[in-house]
Design brief:
By secondary structure, the chain is of the alpha+beta class. The chain has a domain of 49 residues: N-terminal domain of TfIIb (Single Sheet). A hairpin with a 5-residue loop joins strand 3 and strand 4.
Length: 84
Amino acid sequence: MNLPSVRLSIIVTCIGLALALVFAPSARSQLDLSPSYVPIGVSSSGNSSTAWFHQPSSRTALACQTVSTASGLSSIQCVTAKLP
């Protein structure tokens, strides 16, 4: 093999590796898209309970309260608010 063909093969190999690095997708771990609420506190009064949560990334507060209905079944109502 002569010297110019060796240089050409080295250059072509380097260009191929550079293109592979540019166009290859980057490896990513699994994305966690669920909100991460941090519990703040809970309270209860009579037969009603309330729990407060905070999501630091979006500065959102969430309050959930149990509500008794006429049939005796309880449901949960939640309200969110954006913090200043």
